[in-house]
Task: inverse folding
């Protein structure tokens, strides 16, 4: 929908000056696209400023879209029209579509040129985030997972000690019960479920369950783990007295101090810290553990996808992508959002983020969970996004108390199976 | 070229030149119509019979399959039903209230300009920005509306935009608020065109009560205005999209899914432009049918004069 094209005057002037005579190869302008400027803008601009010091000959012209859906749409539309962005940061679960439609260029040859990826901070786990089948479709730029945001003032009123924060859903529901007994009781908790199935899958993966079997021929919500996850969600809604709010409304209620605990992505932690700073002490903690052995969490976030056709632009875009996902770029990203760094050097070497995490312990909840995060699953076939919506639509029935968990599992199973590609 | 031919050519040249000039003058508008309206519409019609997906290199001709799918698509059926409910609520309410406001302002002596401005304000404000204000007003826990309801003793005020029972109602209320002012202004214009003497004459003829005068003079003479207002309100409310896209995204569980939002979601979220174009055609057919029905059915009963 809305797309903003911003070009710095300086960039234009410099480009205009550069054209006539002065060494032509010096200035290359690349178009870089990203989504969710309300979350990423500060980070991208900080990275671009640092990049300009290293590569003064590369100008960046930004293109943004409000969310990941619009972002995917924008590059598909531009590809259809023959004009294109050179580098686009896309949601990790959209790499599949871009690869299937032949728009994401394989980065493996470019990476091979640079030597051992692990020495650059790209460990196999990190590379996996951007790999589709055998194609290195993108390089992960940011990673998120679900965390718990707690209202410290309300916890104090309910007599919950900060040293004894719950590590299980039983513990969380116990606090919820105590919160709801307070005079002038706030809403105890909210579990973000409505935008995509991504956040809800924390409950499924937490049981050790998966959405599909490894061959991707069978939807697995009717497995014991799937049923358990749905039953747990029903318990969270019922026993946690979860109000029926939209995601945005829940975020506002939490910011206003009217919600005790909120389970959501770590992505907008920085915004949340700013919003709540005046109102109450904010606490974060890792998600409650469901199965300590098999339990995982889904990873969210974005990856840079190279799309430039022109050789010079391709080279310049690759340089920027390398910088943005390198230790320095990653560190700037982590400081300016709530995301987890996805470059091993930035994680291990304290010169990059050591001090930052010491001073901002709220960011640690997500980082601690990094070892148990696994891929952001994208459903196969052309109905992939529609399947996400079918799952979310059915979750609404639990939230509104319209149908019991077992019924919802059954209906979702039937609907999704119909939308999956037929096994040949 | 012979000399004899010259005078004849001269006489016929003037009309040809004039026609040519006329053509030249209409050319910009003609090109704009062709490029901006006709061609895109034809493209949409063509796409509706294909399986085109955004970003896919090729498309196939699939005939009526998109329309066949629509018949069995639960999402489309719900969207159609919700749109009908929405239009059925917003149209009569915004017309009735708009007329009421117009009558009150017309009859009032003080603050007419003030009230006209107050009711017209929603029309000139940006829906998307106003939606953010509505989101706050209707917020279940921190919103002023529910705070007020709790004050007067309602223990469990509704969740408005996030409950499937009230979401369509809430959106309809916003829709009424949006079009009330527009309808009011149209009615005010209609009212000012009614000659004062007719009221005096009606009173002499025995129409004593205000209601009688309304029934015998105002309502019949407002006929042309009402016809226009009904048509325009129907079309405006069938087109509901912004509030849904900003406030509810069709949720919860499709309870606020409306025609245009389904079209948008199919085309731009699921990337199925072919199917989306087919929905557009259905939408176009509905709008055209509405306009046609309105003019046909009501034209006969209207007094122009």
Result:
């Amino acid at each position: 929908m809305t797309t903003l094209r911003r070009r710095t005057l300086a960039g234009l002037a410099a480009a205009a000056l550069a054209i006539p005579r002065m060494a032509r190869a010096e200035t290359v302008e690349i178009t870089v696209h990203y989504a969710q400027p309300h979350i990423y803008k500060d980070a991208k601009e900080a990275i671009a400023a640092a990049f300009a010091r290293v590569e003064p000959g590369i100008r960046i012209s930004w293109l943004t879209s409000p969310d990941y859906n619009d972002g995917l749409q924008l590059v598909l539309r531009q590809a259809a029209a023959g004009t294109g962005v050179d580098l686009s940061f896309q949601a990790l679960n959209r790499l599949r579509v871009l690869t299937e439609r032949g728009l994401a260029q394989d980065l493996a040859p470019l990476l091979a040129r640079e030597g051992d990826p692990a020495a650059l901070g790209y460990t196999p786990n990190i590379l996996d985030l951007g790999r589709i089948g055998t194609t290195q479709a993108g390089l992960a730029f940011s990673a998120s997972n679900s965390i718990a945001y707690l209202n410290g003032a309300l916890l104090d009123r309910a007599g919950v000690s900060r040293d004894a924060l719950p590590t299980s859903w039983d513990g969380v529901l116990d606090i919820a019960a105590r919160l709801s007994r307070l005079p002038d009781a706030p809403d105890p908790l909210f579990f973000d479920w409505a935008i995509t199935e991504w956040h809800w899958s924390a409950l499924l993966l937490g049981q050790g369950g998966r959405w599909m079997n490894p061959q991707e021929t069978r939807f697995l919500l009717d497995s014991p783990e799937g049923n358990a996850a749905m039953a747990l969600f029903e318990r969270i809604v019922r026993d946690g007295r979860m109000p029926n709010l939209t995601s945005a409304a829940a975020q506002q209620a939490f910011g206003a101090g009217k919600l005790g605990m909120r389970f959501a992505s770590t992505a907008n932690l920085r915004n949340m810290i700013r919003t709540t700073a005046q109102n109450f002490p904010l606490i974060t903690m890792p998600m409650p553990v469901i199965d300590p052995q098999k339990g995982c969490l889904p990873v969210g976030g974005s990856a840079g996808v190279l799309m430039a056709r022109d050789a010079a632009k391709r080279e310049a875009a690759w340089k920027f992508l390398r910088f943005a996902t390198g230790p320095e770029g990653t560190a700037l990203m982590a400081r300016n959002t709530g995301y987890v760094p996805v470059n091993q050097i930035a994680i291990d070497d304290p010169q990059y983020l050591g001090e930052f995490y010491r001073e901002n312990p709220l960011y640690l909840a997500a980082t601690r969970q990094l070892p148990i995060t696994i891929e952001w699953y994208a459903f196969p076939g052309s109905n992939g996004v529609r399947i996400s919506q079918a799952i979310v639509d059915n979750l609404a029935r639990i939230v509104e108390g319209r149908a019991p968990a077992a019924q919802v599992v059954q209906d979702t199973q039937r609907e999704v199976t119909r939308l999956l590609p037929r096994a040949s | 070229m012979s000399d004899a031919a010259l005078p004849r050519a001269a006489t016929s040249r003037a009309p040809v030149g004039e026609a040519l000039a006329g053509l030249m003058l209409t050319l910009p508008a003609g090109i704009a119509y062709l490029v901006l309206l006709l061609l895109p519409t034809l493209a949409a019609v063509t796409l509706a019979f294909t399986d085109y997906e955004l970003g896919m290199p090729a498309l196939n001709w699939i005939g009526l399959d998109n329309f066949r799918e629509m018949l069995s698509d639960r999402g489309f059926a719900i969207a159609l039903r919700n749109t009908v409910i929405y239009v059925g609520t917003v149209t009569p309410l915004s017309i009735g209230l708009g007329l009421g406001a117009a009558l009150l302002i017309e009859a009032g002596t003080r603050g007419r300009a003030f009230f006209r401005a107050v009711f017209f304000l929603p029309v000139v404000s940006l829906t998307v920005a106003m939606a953010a204000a509505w989101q706050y007003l209707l917020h279940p826990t921190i919103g002023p509306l529910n705070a007020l309801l709790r004050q007067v003793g309602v223990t469990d005020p509704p969740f408005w935009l996030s409950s499937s029972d009230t979401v369509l109602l809430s959106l309809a209320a916003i829709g009424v608020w949006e079009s009330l002012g527009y309808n009011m202004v149209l009615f005010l214009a209609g009212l000012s065109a009614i000659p004062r003497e007719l009221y005096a004459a009606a009173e002499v003829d025995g129409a004593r009560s205000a209601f009688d005068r309304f029934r015998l003079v105002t309502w019949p003479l407002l006929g042309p205005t009402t016809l226009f207002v009904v048509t325009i309100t129907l079309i405006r409310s069938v087109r509901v999209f912004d509030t849904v896209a900003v406030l509810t995204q069709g949720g919860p569980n499709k309870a606020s899914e409306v025609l245009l939002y389904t079209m948008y979601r199919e085309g731009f979220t699921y990337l199925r432009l072919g199917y989306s174009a087919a929905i557009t055609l259905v939408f176009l057919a509905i709008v055209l049918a509405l306009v046609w029905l309105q003019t046909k059915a009501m034209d006969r009963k209207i007094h122009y004069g």
Notes: Confidence is low (pLDDT under 50) at residues 1-24 of chain A.
